Prior knowledge:
alpha/beta, TIM Barrel, 2 domains, eight-stranded parallel β-sheet, eight-stranded parallel beta barrel, 23 helices, 14% strand, elongated
Amino acid sequence: MPHAFSRRLAEGPLLCDGAMGTILYSRGVAVDACFDVLNLSNPKLVQSVHADYIAAGADCIETNTFGANRFKLGAYSLEGQVREINQRGARLARDMRESMGRDVLVLGSIGPLGKYLAPLGTLTHAEARAAFREQTEALLEGGVDAVVFETFPGLTELRLAIEVVRGITDLPIVAQMAFTDEALTYTGRTPAEVVRALRKLPVEAVGANCSVGSSVLYEVLEQMLPDAGGLALAMQPNAGLPTRVGERLIYLSSPAYMAEWAGRMIEAGARILGGCCGTTPQHIAAMREVIDRKAPSSRRPSRGAVALHVGERLEAGPAAAAPPPTTLQRKLEARDFVVSVELDPPRGHTADKLVQGARLLKERGVEVVDINDGSLGRVRMAVLPTALLVREATGLDVNMHFTCRDRNLMGIQAEMLAAWALGIRNILAMTGDPPRTGDYANATAVFDVDAIGLIQVIRRMNEGMDATGNSIGGNTFFHIGAVLNPVAGDLGREVERFHRKVEAGACWVQTQPVYDLEVLERFFDRAGPSPVPVIVGVLPLHSARHAEFLHNEVPGITIPDAIRTRMREAGDQALRAGIEMAQRLVHELRPRYAGAYLMPSFGRFEVVAEVLDGLR
């Protein structure tokens, strides 16, 4: 079987990421610091760069190991940590791939050794081979999908490095050299000479990166093409030549400019594109859009954090016939107003009260119930068995909430597989509340992924694969929902996340409790019309104290001053006022939104039942 990199390259052009050092520098790392050791000292910073490039649409991300050989690390007295730095660099990239749920390829980055080979310098070929072998073996242990040689100034060192890597692995190799603005290597070789020399070696692709901008590398590409034979050509230019502004180096090529040249390179015959010094996730995102237009047969989702690659169908399970739609799915698709009621799992091991409440709701015409998952970070019965108990006792359609707090990526997938096997079809994907202070103040949250990553994981299962592309034996057909908070403190971020959730695969959204539909309408004025059905959260108020508590102490809930005032003025009739306001709100939203999501407080199902009675 060909390697994943080779299969993907055969499907169409691949887009690599951009600069690592440029972004680390922009985020506060000193320009003369050792970037490679950040794999150990600040892994989250390194992973944030990987995440941004995945989100921008890169098909390949390169490990933060360009200078992680014994000689370059020796300048920082780190020569004894070659294995640890390279292995960790590969694993950081792989972990971010899994966390974001997108099938990007991880390329092990190897740069020149930083010392001249004999006879020009003092570095012997044996010493060079040992250094390349040490770095390569560590990258292989970390699990890279291919090896990329970058910014090599001369053919002799590059040939030696290729020989070493091919002696210990059959993974694909991408060999790239640096060129001057005269389209020559630093040892005076032309692009045609380079490609003729490298095509005789066991490499998957050859090309150029760094040093110069897009226009010069386009010239290099044109000169390589006639002699490339069957080799793929890779071009990863800088964002132009740097200029010093104060104490900073600034690269002038804009994302639009580099994207235009990327389109020309694709048309000319380049198969691997990306960026080097000065390029950012914005450059890669712009290139993604152009590549998708120029090579539609190889189109991949344009936002890695919200999309999944679906090309490797051969490794997925056999396609299965979709089961009948769930009640929730059928009603949403038919634009039949949905009324769902939230049920909290019990704090103990007995679900009798919960089941009785569900039966009461069914008698009042409810067809769908939501089973909460550890709301407010409290210990309750697990959501999956609770959902099964309610469904088996009542026959109601169940929408199972699922949070990322208590489960790592493996645990998430394990529970999703179990849920599917047990007949759960509706999933509301949520990031989840952090552990509550108090009895469990020291409990540890996991959060391997957030709600967007969770949607991607579930969507990938719907395609027959787990998060790493392994077959799960067949497709699932989960109906995936997401949460929307129209009164979030950072509304811009909430709008962005709303769109990312929908693009990731959410089929509908449910809001946090809303008490004024104008708030929701203002949200969609800013976000644009929702492309998926919206179910509006309605939480009946019980008292003035209840209203103040929700408004001041519960994240995600805002109650307008006028409503809190009315609850105070209602006095002993506050519960009646809360029920009437909930009824009125449902009447108002009925012609404008897909449904109402009613939330009982304090386990008082009779309050919700009374709200429902007023809707008949």
